[in-house]
Amino acid sequence: MNGYKKAKERYAEVSVDTEKAIETLKNVSVSLHCWQGDDVRGFDTDPSKPLTGGIQTTGNYLGRAGNYQQLMDDIDLVLKLIPGKPKMNLHASYAIFEDGNWADRNKLQPKHFEKWVNFCKERGLGCDFNPTFFSHKKCDPLTLSSANEETRKFWIDHGKACIRVSNYLAQELNDTCVMNIWTGDGLKDIPGDRLGPRVRYKESLDEILKEPYDFNKVKPCIESKVFGIGVEAYTTGSAEFALSYAAFNKDKCIPLMDNGHYHPTEVVSDKISALLTFFDEIALHITRPIRWDSDHVVLFDDETKEIAREIVRCGIDKVNIALDYFDASINRVAAWVIGYRNVQKALLYGLLQPIEQLKKLQEEQKFTELMVKQEELKTMPFNEIWDEYCNRCNVPKDGQWFEIVEEYERKVLSKRTQ
Ligand code: RNT
Ligand code: ZN
């Protein structure tokens, strides 16, 4: 009997259907963030200028993608090495300008994303989108919450342009487009006015969301944050702000939680059910914070597993899942693959839980048995199911993909000049 068959029987003994888990996961879309490949630089500003908005990449590993062709080549390799149903996730700063048709962020048009649309079409991918409210000379440093009306107008126009681009992506690719609004707006030190920027941020969001879109196809999200580098004292779009905005505008947008954006002992795994009590749908950025919002590569660690278990328990179709991290200190293609495979692993792990049984034990207050059952699940033959899932998705198993990335590093990445 092969390993999978044995493992399948073992799971059946604890009332888990491995076939169902595998088939479900094949159809769960998870967004692959384009910004891991070039350290969040994008193509629309001077790449030698630093990243702003309170985020930072550290490291200088060889082979950063320096243009759209290189980025697409790298993504193509990633797509060969990850199982499941990936979807692209683009930032507005990845607009592709050719023949002198550069446009500033307030003037972006769908045509600037035509090459990405073709890329997605050829590979059968949907695409999510993000306005880019950072790394630009118009950050004063505030954007949508700026007191300067001209600045604020520029960024509102950027948001509106991005809704039009999102409409285009959803339409062309015949898939929903989750459009996430995150700004790094905030202050380094104790504010003289906390309310003003928040009121302006709210008004800016109201303006942006007046741009027409079909909420079944384009899903604007509001992402909160606790603090960033250089904005340690005050973040305009705090958790309470973002959540309240989404709650008061449930017909127009959904909340997005990034698990790097909370105080260190808070966990997003506990927040998913809290939000889904009130919202039909939420969005997540899965990342790995170490001591701060450091955006390390996602691992198959306890919190990632717990997030995945919660997604499965609360309804996998209610959560828009995206990756969000950027590590420039290791091979960037490997960074993408490791994180994506780990999110897939965590989801598979979550799907291999006897949900009803555990729920019943809790309801019957059989807490000792609940602990025993949950602990024993940890040593089930998970790797066999994972290998089978990779096989059925026609991608390499663990132990078989890294050499492909190493070869790509030797042949392609190490020849790049930037
Ligand atoms: C930053 C936010 C935001 C960005 C991306 C690039 O702290 O998490 O989502 O990482 O938009
Ligand atoms: Zn994020």
* Helix-strand category: alpha/beta
Query: Would you give the CATH topology?
Result: TIM Barrel
Whole-Å distance between the termini? 51 Å
Radius of gyration over all CA atoms, rounded:
22 Å
In round numbers, the mean pLDDT is: 97
Give the structure's gist in a few sentences:
With 418 residues, the chain is of the alpha/beta class.
Structure description:
41% of the residues lie in helices and 13% in strands. The chain has an 8-stranded parallel beta sheet. A two-stranded antiparallel sheet has the order 5-7. It is globular. It has one domain: TIM Barrel. The chain has 14 helices and 12 strands. With 418 residues, the chain is of the alpha/beta class. The model has no long low-confidence stretch (mean pLDDT 97). It starts with a helix and ends in a 7-residue tail after the last helix. The chain has helices at 3-13, 18-26, 68-81, 114-123, 149-173, 195-208, 239-248, 272-276, 302-314, 332-351, 355-363, 367-377, 382-392, 402-411, and strands spanning 29-33, 85-91, 127-130, 177-181, 186-187, 218-223, 234-235, 254-258, 282-286, 288-290, 292-296, 319-323. The structure holds L-rhamnitol and zinc ion. Zinc ion (ZN) binds at residues 182, 223, 258, 285, 324.
